[in-house]
Specification:
The protein is of the alpha/beta class. It has 13 helices and 14 strands.
C-alpha cells in the first residue's frame, strides 16, 4: 500500500472521479475536492468540501499531499473568464503544498494545421481562443516549474469516453442509438484520437508514482507526456459501436442509420447561442486527422495496459445505461 496522498481538484467531474478511483485502487490516500459531495467515493478517499478559491483553507485541509491533479474544467462558454484564473488557483495550492502538479492536456494547442501524428515536441500553433488559453496555462506551469516553484506534468490525451455521461460519445454519437441512429461529427475517413477514461486515469497514477518515487530526482521540473489511447476513423468508431451494441443485445430491426452533425446550422445558431458558437469553433478537430504518439510516456513509466477498444466501448455503453436490464431511454438520457 502507498503512503502517498493525492489531492484531486474537481473530483465530481468525469475525469476527476475516474482519477480518484484509479489512485484509490492503487493504494493512495485520496482527497476528493469539490463544492458538493460526490454521490459516492472509492474506499480510501475523503471528500474536501473546500472551495478552490479559498487557498489557505484548501492547503490546510490537504496538508501533506504529494500530488495535485487539476481536473476542474469550466463550461465551454466560461473558458475565457475562468480557465486561467482557476488554473492559477490550482497552481498556487500545489506550490504551497510542495506537491507535483498534474494537468490533463488536450490537442487544442496544436491548431487547425496540426500534423497527423502529435509528439511532445510538435510545435503548438493554436488557431482558436480555447487553444490559446490552454497554451497559456501550460506556459504558466512551465514558468513556475523552471523558476523552482513546483514540479509539473501535462498528460495530453484525445477526446474522453467512458465512465459516464458528458462526452461526444453520448452527447452526439450514440444519443439516438435506441432509435437505431448513430451520428458522427466529421468525415468518416479521418483518424481521431480518443482516450478511454479508466485507462487515462491509470496513466495518471503511473506518472504520479514515478514523480514521487525513487525516479523523482531524475524527473524534469516540467514535462509533457502524450497518452496514445485509441485512434479510430469515424467509420471505425461507428463500426465499433455497432459491434459492441450487438454484444449487449442492441440491434435495430431495420438496421443502423448513420448521420452527421449539422455544422452549418450550428454555426448559424452560434450567432445567437454562445454554446453553439463555442462548439462550432472546435469543429476542425473532426476534419483534421490526428493521433497521439505515446512513446515517451511508455519510456517513462513502462508499458501501460490498454483496454482493447471493443471491451472499452462495451463498458462505456453499459455505463451509459444501454444493454440488457438498462434504465429506460428517458432515464439514460
Amino acid at each position: 500500500m502507498s503512503h502517498r496522498t493525492v489531492l484531486v481538484l474537481g473530483a465530481t467531474g468525469r475525469l476527476g472521479a475516474a482519477v480518484a478511483a484509479a489512485f484509490a485502487a492503487a493504494g493512495w490516500r485520496v482527497l476528493a475536492q469539490s463544492r458538493r459531495a460526490p454521490a459516492s467515493l472509492p474506499a480510501g478517499a475523503a471528500h474536501l468540501g473546500v472551495a478552490l478559491e479559498d487557498t489557505a483553507a484548501l492547503v490546510a485541509a490537504a496538508a501533506g499531499a504529494d500530488v495535485v491533479v487539476h481536473a476542474v474544467n469550466p463550461a465551454y462558454t466560461d473558458w475565457e473568464r475562468l480557465l486561467l484564473p482557476l488554473g492559477r488557483l490550482a497552481l498556487d495550492a500545489a506550490e504551497r503544498l510542495g506537491a507535483v502538479f498534474m494537468l490533463p492536456g488536450n490537442v487544442y494547442g496544436f491548431g487547425e494545421q496540426m500534423p497527423a501524428v502529435l509528439r511532445e515536441d510538435t510545435p503548438e500553433r493554436p488557431t482558436t481562443s480555447k487553444g490559446r488559453l490552454r497554451v497559456a496555462l501550460e506556459a504558466e506551469m512551465r514558468d513556475r516549474a523552471e523558476a523552482g516553484r513546483l514540479r509539473a506534468v501535462v498528460v495530453r490525451a484525445g477526446d474522453f469516453y467512458g465512465a459516464g455521461q458528458g462526452s461526444w460519445l453520448d452527447l452526439a454519437v450514440v444519443k439516438s442509438m435506441r432509435e437505431g441512429k448513430l451520428v458522427y461529427p466529421g468525415p468518416l475517413d479521418r483518424p481521431h484520437a480518443w482516450a478511454y477514461l479508466p485507462d487515462l486515469a491509470r496513466a495518471f497514477v503511473a506518472v504520479a508514482e514515478r514523480a514521487t518515487g525513487g525516479a523523482a530526482t531524475a524527473a524534469p521540473a516540467f514535462e509533457t507526456l502524450h497518452f496514445e489511447g485509441h485512434t479510430l476513423t469515424g467509420a471505425e468508431l461507428l463500426d465499433l459501436v455497432q459491434a459492441t451494441a450487438a454484444d449487449i443485445g442492441l440491434a435495430p430491426a431495420r438496421g443502423w442509420r448513420r448521420g452527421g452533425m449539422p455544422w452549418a446550422f450550428i454555426r448559424a445558431m452560434g450567432l445567437f447561442v454562445p454554446m453553439m458558437r463555442a462548439i462550432a469553433e472546435m469543429s476542425y478537430l473532426w476534419r483534421v486527422p490526428h493521433a497521439l504518439d505515446g512513446t515517451r510516456l511508455a519510456a517513462r513509466v513502462g508499458a501501460l495496459a490498454q483496454t482493447p477498444p471493443r471491451q472499452a466501448m462495451r463498458q462505456a455503453l453499459l455505463d451509459l445505461g444501454f444493454g440488457a436490464g438498462a434504465p429506460s431511454a428517458a432515464a439514460a438520457h
